[in-house]
Specification:
about 325 residues; Arc Repressor Mutant, subunit A; about 35% helix; two-stranded antiparallel ribbon; alpha+beta
C-alpha cells in the first residue's frame, strides 16, 4: 500500500513536496505516484489524485477498512494548499494533552438571516465600530420567532431546522454563508465528556468543544478593516442562529456549565503582517469582543508557527504563549 496516497482526501486534495515533508512522509513518493499514473501535476506545482489514483484509494479503503473521503472538485487549489499547511503547522505546535483535536478545511457554515454589511455594522466618522444587526428588522423577527437559547432551555426540544429554514425563506430572509478556511475543534478532557451522548441536531458537533475559526490575513499591508469585521459579523450571526436552532442550551456552555471558547484566529504569512493587523484592529478591541458571549481574537503567522521547536502541551498554552492578542475579554 502506498501510504502517501492516503494523504489525499476531501480536506487535503492537493499536496506538494514541502507539505508531504511536514506530514513526516517521503516527498519522493509524490514523483513515484505520479510516474505510476496515480497523481496528476498541476500548473501551480502541486499534485492531485488522478482517476486511477481515486480508484486505487477506494480499493485501499475496502481492503483495509479505512474510511475514504475523496477530494471535492469545488475547492480552489491555492486555498486548499494554505489550509493544509496551516493545519500541519498547528498540529505540530501542540500535543493536545487530555484532548481531541479535530479539523475541517474550507468549511461553509450556513445561517439565517444573512444580513448585508450595511445591516450588520458601520464605522462612524471617528472610525469607531458600531454593530447594527440586532436592530435589523429581519434579525428582530427571527429572534422573536426563536427566542429560546442558553442554559435555561436545556431539555427542551429544539425547533425543526427544516421548518426554520422554510419560515425564513417565506419571509424573504437571505441565507448567510460563513466561509472558514480552517475550523479547529478542541475537546478537552474528552474521556469525561464521552459519557454525554451527542445531540442529533448539532450538525457541526459544537457541543463540548472549544472552537477556533481560522482566517487568512491578506498578504498586502492591512489598511482596511472591512474584511476582518465582515468575518466577525458572520461568526456572530452564525452563532446567534446556531444557538437557537441547532444547539440551544449548549452553544456557549458545555454539559458541565464550563464556557466553550470561540476563538477567531487571523493568520498571516509573516510577523510584519500580524503586526499590521494588530495596529489596525486594536483600536476597536472593545467593540469586537462585545457579544452575548465574548469572542476571543488572536493572530499569528506561518513564520511564527514554523519556529516552534517543541510542541506545547495544550492548545491553551499555545494560544497564551505564541499568539498575538488582538481583542479578548481577558488580558491573555
Amino acid at each position: 500500500m502506498r501510504r502517501t496516497l492516503l494523504l489525499f482526501d476531501e480536506d487535503n486534495p492537493f499536496w506538494n513536496a514541502e507539505l508531504v515533508f511536514m506530514a513526516q512522509e517521503d516527498p519522493k513518493e509524490l514523483e513515484v505516484l505520479y510516474s505510476e499514473g496515480l497523481l496528476e501535476a498541476t500548473s501551480l506545482g502541486n499534485y492531485r489524485l488522478s482517476s486511477e489514483g481515486k480508484r486505487v484509494l477506494l480499493c485501499y479503503g475496502r481492503e483495509w477498512g479505512v474510511p475514504i473521503s475523496l477530494p471535492s472538485k469545488d475547492v480552489q487549489e491555492a486555498d486548499a494548499i494554505w489550509s493544509t499547511r496551516l493545519r500541519l503547522l498547528l498540529d505540530k505546535s501542540f500535543v493536545g494533552r487530555w484532548s481531541l483535536k479535530e479539523y475541517k478545511h474550507n468549511v461553509v457554515l450556513s445561517y439565517f438571516p444573512g444580513l448585508a454589511r450595511e445591516e450588520s455594522w458601520v464605522l462612524d466618522e471617528k472610525g469607531r465600530l458600531h454593530w447594527l444587526y440586532a436592530d435589523s428588522p429581519m434579525m428582530q423577527a427571527f429572534l422573536k420567532r426563536y427566542p429560546e437559547t442558553g442554559i435555561k432551555v436545556r431539555g427542551k426540544e429544539p425547533p425543526d431546522a427544516k421548518e426554520v429554514i422554510q419560515w425564513c425563506k417565506n419571509r424573504s430572509m437571505p441565507e448567510g454563508k460563513l466561509h472558514v478556511p480552517l475550523l479547529l475543534w478542541s475537546r478537552y478532557d474528552f474521556t469525561h465528556y464521552a459519557r454525554f451522548s451527542p445531540l442529533p441536531h448539532d450538525i457541526w458537533k459544537l457541543m463540548n468543544a472549544d472552537r477556533m475559526f481560522c482566517f487568512r490575513i491578506p498578504d498586502s499591508t492591512c489598511e482596511n478593516p472591512a474584511v476582518f469585521i465582515d468575518q466577525v459579523a458572520a461568526v456572530r450571526l452564525f452563532l446567534t442562529y446556531y444557538s437557537r436552532v441547532h444547539l440551544p442550551g449548549y452553544t456557549h456552555f458545555d454539559t458541565e456549565d464550563q464556557e466553550n471558547l470561540n476563538w477567531i484566529l487571523w493568520v498571516g504569512e509573516d510577523d510584519s503582517i500580524v503586526e499590521a493587523t494588530l495596529n489596525l484592529l486594536s483600536p476597536m478591541a472593545k467593540e469586537l469582543v462585545d457579544f452575548e458571549m465574548p469572542l476571543h481574537f488572536k493572530a499569528t503567522s506561518m513564520e511564527s508557527l514554523m519556529k516552534i521547536q517543541e510542541p506545547y502541551e495544550t492548545i491553551y498554552d499555545l494560544v497564551f504563549y505564541e499568539f498575538v492578542n488582538i481583542a479578548s475579554p481577558d488580558p491573555s
